[in-house]
Amino acid sequence: MRRTTVVAAGAAIGLAATAALAGCSSTQHVGGSSGGSSTGASATGAHKPGGVVTISNEQGQTWSCAFNPFSPSYQLQSLGMIYEPLVYVDALDNQKETDMLATGYTWNADKTQITFTVRPGVTWSDGKPFTAADVAFTFNLLKQDPALDLYSLWSAAGLTSATASGNTAVLTFKQNAQTYFYNFADQVGIVPEHLWSEKSTFGGKSPDQWSDPTPVGTGPYEVNPCTANNIQYTANPHYWQPSEPAIQKVEYPAYLSNDPANNDLASGKDNWGNQFVPNIQSFYLSKSPSYHTWSPPVSNVALFPNLKQGATATLAVREAISYAIDRTKISDIGENGQEPPANQSGIITPTFSQYQDVANLQTSGYATTATSANTQKAESLLSGAGYSPAHPLNLTVISITGYTDWDADLAVMKSELAAIGINLTVDDETNGTYFSNLQNGTFQLAYYGETGGPTPYTELREELLSQNSAPIGQPASTNYERYSNPAVDSLLDQYATASAASQISIIQQVSDYMTKDLPIIPVVENVDWFQYDDQDIKGWPTASDPYAQPGPAIVPDMEQVLLHLYSASAQ
Amino acid sequence: MRFILRRVGMFVFTLWAALTLNFFIPRFMPGNPLQDLVARGRGKISAQAMADMLASFGYKQNENGFQQYFAYLGNMVTGNWGVSLTVAPGAPIRDMVLSALPWTLGLIGVTTILAFLAGTGIGIAAGWRRGGLVDSVLPTTFVITTALPYFVVGMLLIEVFSVTNHWLPNDYTYDYTIVPGFSPGFIGSILQHALLPAAALMITSVGGWILTMRNNMITTLAEDYIRMGRAKGLSNRKIMYGYAARNALLPNLSGFAMSLGFVLSGAVLVEWVFNYQGVGYLLLDAVDSADYPLMQALFLLYTVAVLVAILASDFLMLRLDPRARAKG
Amino acid sequence: MKFLRSLLHNRKAVAGLLILLLIVLMSYVPGLFTSNSNPDTLGQYDPQLPISTAHLLGTTGLGQDTYSLLVYGARQSLQIAVIAGFFATVLSVLVGVTAAYLGGVVDDLLSMLTNVVLIIPTFPLIVILAKYAGQSNTVMIAVLVATGWSYGANQLRAQALSLRNREFLESARVRGERRSYIICFEMLPTMSSLIVANFLGAALYSVGAAAGLQFLGLGDQSHDSWGQMLYWAQNREALEAGSPLWAIAPGVAIAVLGASFALINYAFDEIGNPALRPVRRKDLRAAAKAEKLRKEGTDHALVDAA
């Protein structure tokens, strides 16, 4: 199973050839000489330095040792660890903000302009000081080279200028930009002007082509060294947070498939896991009392029905499907119980339970959590639409090759739907083809999970806002089922400027349309896969202290986790 | 001379056909690099930004197919393989291939040679001692082992040697905590990591060599010149090695050359099962994410390897076997 | 008839044929072996049950009965092998015999084609084709045929060339028979044993290649097959996570199917070339006696004659 949210890079560059000249007759271990030396900043009584974290995260590729934070393929290795954002936003803890390179910010009244105060005393890992000019430079770089502007800040978000004066940096937008805060404050890593402004740095290439093999950032780690098989990060001795990071070394081996990654996790070779471990109880948890897992749900995996054409445009058909599927069974078999069953309101529980309109979900007939199959109701709805086991409805659902848990989910649904008179055919397509069909609306049903965000608003907006849709045959950005409801649009538009309390009410009202119109049919909840070994390394995020998304594939959250970790034996 | 010209002509034509197939097949199939990148960004990342990036790497979505084709043929011949589009956007393909190549050559190449040597040796013994223990048990055993799928053997070896007992590593080319260099630890680590995949390859490939060698040996032993040798009172040893085995080996040599040629392209499953970072795995990656330039370069490499091996075996046969010389 | 008799006297052939018969029965009358007629359905039983009388090979991690899954998986694996083997052989015969019989430019062109296909690295090509053409058995068979015929064509061409000037063909030509008649009714029957051997070789190749593709997840996902079982077993860590037979059973089954083709094929070689047959004790004793009588050489007598 290949399931990673952001698929990173890989390929091998200059491996043994150059290194072979350096090493001679004795076997040297990577970073063996420098790893133990401390940062000298441990006087504050915080955790003493020491300890190694080894990540088990299947990428399907070897490392290409590229750290350009503006390449979607390489962000995973560099955002946070090397290049830090202005503000960290915790999606699991009600959007709690942690100041990173900014010490604070202020919006103007209509939220079209934001002023960041940058942190004093921060230096780049080459010793040069970090300033507000670096911030303005970074955003202007995205304008110069649009291939770097991954979140369309200068186009869709309406960014018009990025300037710096003294210790402040100002971003000005055409319209209210609050909904983009997460993108520009949390997802853009700030790069050093003194290197990135020099053409010679890129060796004749444009910045988007540049691999950035020896990155210079403000983050807690430096790359030392990187090979095709493994990236080793060592603590940055100049890091601005006193006595951080405590963990002196992070190993990030490249795994080509899940199998070896899981084996290394189970043998204790790796202590930070980020993937689906089948039968986790016997395969992993039972092997040591120090092995734990906590994979918090973050978004829905849902059936996206085509609302514009075919039988799925009929409400009764969608209702019948939602009643007929046993989400608990799908979760148990397809996901081994590790991705919990979803519910028709689309609100992820327990992560976002405070947004749930419990009363409405109860009266709608779709239970709050485990929805046991209501076959009779489904049958009568479907026969009302003109279908029955004798006259079955043929539907094809598209899914992605290699997503075997999804294949298993759909296999369970197939047998459940057959009972009420729907013949479900599963069509596995390659990632690219699948996504193109999804965007263009050329499907009957699609099994898919949106990316979600810090509140249910992000996912609901992705799924339901009519501007995110497009006519069949043209790419929709996120509203693939092509739902269009002016009432929902206006609710979603009010959200940005609403007070915190009425934001909850808006989300509840929007989710009521999920149970009324069934624009999509949530099945299970996507989780952030997370396994950890706390024998020596302590300080992991937990359900009671969800200070960051716990999986190492989520950046810049990975940096937050590493800043919280420490080695018990070093204390 | 005419023979050589024919062979070289054949070489060029085959190369052209292989390159052409590899250019058009992926392009006529659904999916393309842009779609793949957009899909990986889950629509969060602007499609225009991705298209711009691909264009700066030299891939233009809507360019005329034939123009692309001729430019491609030129680039393949001149070794200008370009940069990867999706597997490692922007990384030079030459570097990617060169760093994966030694692992495949080392593991699969060496194992193929060992399997050939061992298989030939056992085959000679079995053919010579007709009806001996070796001869009565081996053929049937090896008929079965040659039919075993490689990856099943690999999975079982991993289960026994790495999962149940932590005797040998099940993945990687070497222990990544060791700095590569000419040190005993590094070389030992490479050997240790190669042991299981090599064993699985041996188990499934040695049988073929044993069977053909045994059969060749038996056929050769019935020839008149062997009788002649015996009549002259030559020692058994001399007849076995100098007369029989030598001649029985000839037909196998070209098969051996072919299998050396297929070392690179036959490695896909080996590398997949053992997480071994060679060129076979690179191909799966490239195919997975529609990385056309990488796919093309690898395919070129695979085809050239086979062609070179065949040419080499042709010339070798010309030298070793007078009969072939007469025909040529 | 004589051929058939010698086939039935060959131990390897008999073993191979019996295995094949068993697999054919499994494929077309699965009800004989298991009462579970819908083994694909997930969650029928508790996952990872150990071996018991109810579940001869335990249950899979997805709650299926491993044994009935194995029985129902036979059909696809066998069909792909036989159909792909058949069409590849037909293509080999067409190309090989036509090239040899017509000669000249046609021969040059067809031989060129054969060599090109023989040299082009097949497995990577199959992976590319299977990946993009979607996961259907038709595509897989087409790919296996397109890549699997060339070896046989080369062999058949060689044999047909050696037949071309034989007397019985000459006489047919003198009788004024048409070319197609000569090829179909004079040449092909003579070549039948090589054609059958080719079919077995192509089928053996297809068993392995198809299983490899299915194992990589490039097979038909909607029908059960042995390669498919391996794919799922690997994805669910069957070996480590408590249902090892889920992976081992189909692996062994593929090997057994392959071995049956290989055994029959090998038997064909032995029948064609009696010298290759294993020496049995009974024969050995006779041989040893003969050797002694002829007083020729000492080595054969050294062979354990007890």
From TrEMBL, chain A:
One of its GO terms (molecular function) is peptide transmembrane transporter activity. Residues 1-22 form the signal peptide. Keywords: Signal, Transport. GO terms for biological process: peptide transport. This is ABC transporter substrate-binding protein. GO terms for cellular component: ATP-binding cassette (ABC) transporter complex; periplasmic space. Belongs to the bacterial solute-binding protein 5 family.
UniProtKB/TrEMBL annotation, chain B:
It is a multi-pass membrane protein. The keyword Cell membrane applies. Its main location: membrane. PROSITE patterns: ABC_TM1 (PS50928). One of its GO terms (biological process) is transmembrane transport. Belongs to the binding-protein-dependent transport system permease family. This is ABC transporter permease.
